[in-house]
Amino acid sequence: MTAEKTTRLWLLATFLLIAIIIINSLVIWLKRDKGQPIVISDPVIENFHGNIYIDGAVNNPGLYPFKDTDNLSGLIRASGGAASDADMSAVNLHIPSTYDTFESQKIDINQAEAWLLQALPDIGQTKAQAIIDDRLKNGLFRNISEITRVPGISAATFEKIKGLITVSE
Question: Mean pLDDT over residues 75-92, rounded?
Answer without folding.
Answer: 77
